[in-house]
From TrEMBL:
GO terms for cellular component: extracellular region. The active site is at D133, H207, S537. CDD domains: PA_subtilisin_like, Peptidases_S8_3. InterPro entries: PA_dom_sf, PA_domain, Peptidase_S8/S53_dom, Peptidase_S8/S53_dom_sf, Peptidase_S8_Ser-AS, Peptidase_S8_subtilisin-rel, Peptidases_S8_3, S8pro/Inhibitor_I9. This is Subtilisin-like protease. PROSITE patterns: SUBTILASE, SUBTILASE_SER. GO terms for biological process: proteolysis; system development. One of its GO terms (molecular function) is serine-type endopeptidase activity. Its main location: secreted. Residues 377-452 form the PA domain.
Length: 761
């Protein structure tokens, strides 16, 4: 029995040992740089000694010095807890995994009308937009540097090389830098499989090429996707330069890599950072993007991030820190109609980017996927679920959900189907996103889908065909808020309204990778110069490029001033009247959907007044959140900063361009009727235009009373600041009630607008 016991003990030890190894994960360690002991001359040596004090085996993955102070390393939870109590350690935060938030927009945004508004002294070509994403396909014409002068002397970046990425060929005066960050990813996921993706800045996914060319791509005539959306494709800021930082890989985007890329991007000299990625919501001292963005803003860099694609549910946002410009998605006035014509003569409009051989004009047999399968989820057209003898030669109606929309088409095609109708369910409502299908296919909204199903189930011999309508422009109403665009309220800080604004994010044409086809599926053999895709990933670089234009036109403006200009000039109503619609409900959207409204670049160039925000304002904001000294130091890198115990801090004192007011529901009250509660917010406006007098007007909901004091502000010179106070009064309402309004300051030429959002909890 003794040998058996020894064997069991050995197996137990091996099991426990492997479990311990498996429990190791990457942590980001924030350090108080000013507290380095005098025995050390280099911070890296101190970081290494601190790490060695808890683990002889661990090694530093990255050392951070620009947007954070500290390092990242693989540790067990026990080692992380011990390290947290070492001298000079501010915090030890587990690494997060982030996901990507996956032409005509310049005209739609009025950029063709704004050229005359940009000063002749414009320094836009000195602005470098840093894009953190999946890399770049540098051969695309969107990175042509014709007409560009020398790279700014302030640029310190490099063009890193790889097996398939040669600096001499890849980078130029337009694409001025390219780096990749994989150490954090490889520490968690193992070595990159170079048969599947490039261990270099090269983009094998397409997402990064699309976002960077959207932000600042050069103008490319005769651009299109398979004949759709033909015209000149151009980024928002054609004069700005681009630097790419590849942080996203097949298995995701890891926060240790993202923080290292932000660190390097600021050191390199980027003036704008664009991040079309996000994770869950967490406190700012635990959010690597929020930490990196804070210290980027401290250095004068504008940071814009995607709001997320988890809409239309409430409180689904990512990237909600107030120093980040959080961008939701709307449509533009261009569409790609494809019509379903049924055997009974009725027809329904959908969307498609199919460009192959058309279906016959005479209808084909139509079948519901749920009736052509033995699988319980066969209605979704998942791989291997359709029966060929049931679908061969027929048009198949598939329900949207679970697997990729274009993959459903592959499933239908592989089973012998002649075409596909992709029907939305309640989860997606009337939201339509066009795809470059490989077989004749169209996507229809929930109402049309239900009508087609009703015909299909009631007719003994159902038939249909699909006709493709090409590209249509001038589609109205537009914009509308995309159903997928993540919504408020802000679950981390309800008193800060998010998203900040919306920009074009549906069916956007931009440059694409040469590694995969427009569907992104391995089975798609096509290769295209451009692609049309949707997401807040697409709306974010629109705002990043616009920020570059504003930075070039007004180089003395702070990131807060640039953000304010974009927000206070955004519009919430259509020119002909009526509020911007939400495609998810068919009703007017609210500030929880679109923030300040839809971006309006020509007006943002000349906003009249701005709400500027200083670093001290943000520090006071962190004090108002009751963050500890260590937590504030983790965000701000200021280990010697302490909140003033004698000062009354309030989140509502942050000089933000929008207002979110949270009222408490009276205890035990099911509705209104209790005494009114009054909340006061103070704001300061800075004149960035000509002298003038601005008067306030308020559109308030019936649930609240809004008073502005003073209601008139006179400015005698540019740079002058004036403050005002807004009193919000409201009686108790049922918990969960929300109401909205708008405050506008106008001198007769400019309108400086702020959304008002009220909640009762």
């Amino acid at each position: 029995m003794e040998p058996l016991r020894l064997l069991l003990l050995l197996l137990l030890m091996l099991c426990c040992s492997s479990t311990a190894v498996a429990k190791k994960r990457t942590y980001i360690v924030h350090m108080a740089k000013s507290q380095m002991p005098p025995a050390f001359t280099e911070h890296r040596h101190w970081y290494d000694a601190s790490l060695r004090s808890v683990s002889d085996a661990a090694e530093i993955i990255y050392a951070y010095d620009t947007v954070a102070h500290g390092f990242s390393a693989r540790l067990s939870p026990a080692e992380a807890r011990v390290l947290e109590h070492r001298p000079g350690v501010l915090g030890v935060v587990p690494e997060e995994r982030y996901e990507l938030h996956t032409t005509r927009t310049p005209e739609f945004l009025g950029l063709d009308r704004s050229e005359g508004l940009i000063p002749q002294s414009n320094t836009e070509s000195d602005v470098i937009v840093g894009v953190l994403d999946t890399g770049v396909w540098p051969e695309r014409k969107s990175y042509d540097d014709a007409g560009f002068g020398p790279i700014p002397a302030s640029w310190k970046g490099v063009c890193e090389e790889g097996k398939d990425f040669k600096a001499a060929d890849a980078c130029n005066r337009k694409l001025v830098g390219a780096r990749f960050f994989s150490r954090g990813y490889e520490a968690s996921m193992g070595p990159i499989d170079e048969t599947k993706e490039s261990r270099s800045p090269r983009d094998n996914d397409g997402h990064g090429t699309h976002t960077s060319s959207t932000a600042a791509g050069s103008a490319v005539p005769d651009a299109n996707l398979l004949g759709y959306a033909a015209g000149t494709a151009r980024g928002m800021s054609t004069r700005a330069r681009v630097a790419v930082y590849k942080v996203c890989w097949l298995g995701g985007c890891f926060s240790s890599d993202i923080l290292a890329a932000m660190d390097k991007a600021i050191e390199d000299g980027c003036g704008v950072l664009s991040l079309s990625l996000g994770g869950g919501m967490s406190d700012y001292y635990r959010d690597s993007v929020a930490i990196g963005a804070f210290n980027a803003v401290v250095k004068g860099v504008v940071v814009s991030c995607s709001a997320g694609n988890a809409g239309p549910g409430t409180s689904t946002l990512s990237n909600v820190a107030p120093w980040i410009t959080t961008v939701g998605a709307g449509t533009i006035d261009r569409d790609f109609p494809a019509y379903v014509v049924l055997g009974d003569g009725k027809n329904y409009t959908g969307v498609s980017l199919y460009s192959g051989k058309p279906l016959p004009s005479s209808p084909l047999p139509l079948i519901y996927a749920g009736n052509a399968t033995n699988a319980t989820n066969g209605n979704l057209c998942m791989v291997g679920t359709l029966l060929p003898d049931k679908v061969s030669g027929k048009i198949v109606l598939c329900d949207r959900g679970i697997n990729a929309r274009v993959q459903k088409g592959f499933v239908v095609r592989d089973a012998g189907g002649a075409g596909m109708i992709l029907a939305n369910t309640a989860a997606n409502g009337e939201e339509l996103v066009a795809d470059a299908h490989l077989l004749p296919a169209t996507a229809v909204g929930e109402k049309a889908g239900n009508a087609i199903k009703s015909y299909l189930f009631s007719d003994p011999n159902p038939k249909a065909t699909v006709a493709f309508g090409g590209t249509k422009v001038g589609v109205m109403p537009s914009p509308v808020v995309a159903a997928f665009s993540s919504r408020g309220p802000n679950a981390v800080t309800p008193d800060i309204l998010k998203p900040d604004l919306v920009a074009p994010g549906v069916n956007i044409l931009a440059a694409w990778t040469g590694s995969v086809g427009p569907t992104g599926q391995a089975a798609d053999p096509r290769r295209t110069e451009f692609n049309i895709i949707s997401g807040t990933s697409m709306s974010c670089p629109h705002v990043s490029g616009l920020a570059a234009i504003l930075r070039g036109a007004h180089p003395d403006w702070s990131p807060g001033a640039i953000k304010s200009a974009l927000m206070t000039t955004a519009y919430a109503d259509y020119p002909g009247g009526g509020g911007i619609l939400d495609v998810a409900t068919g009703r007017p959207a609210t500030p929880f959907d679109f923030g300040a409204g839809h971006v309006d670049p020509p007006k943002a160039l000349d906003p009249g007044l701005v709400y500027d925000v200083t670093v001290d304002d943000y520090l006071d904001f962190l004090c108002a959140l009751n963050y500890t000294t260590l937590q504030i130091a983790s965000v701000s890198r200021r280990s010697n900063f302490n909140c003033d115990n004698k000062k009354a801090y309030a989140v509502s004192d942050l000089n933000y361009p929008s207002f979110a007011v949270a009222f408490a529901t009276a205890s035990g009250a099911g509705g209104g009727g209790s005494a009114a509660t009054t909340v006061r917010h103070t704001r300061t406006l800075t004149n960035v235009g000509a002298p003038g007098t601005y008067k306030a007007t308020v559109s308030a909901p019936q649930e609240a009373k809004v008073t502005v004091e003073p209601s008139e502000l006179s400015f005698a010179a540019a740079g002058e600041k004036k403050s005002y106070t807004v009193a919000f009064s409201a009686a108790s309402q049922p918990s969960g009630t929300a109401a909205f309004g708008r405050l506008e300051w106008s001198d007769g030429k400019h309108v400086v607008a702020s959304p008002l959002a009220f909640t009762w909890t």
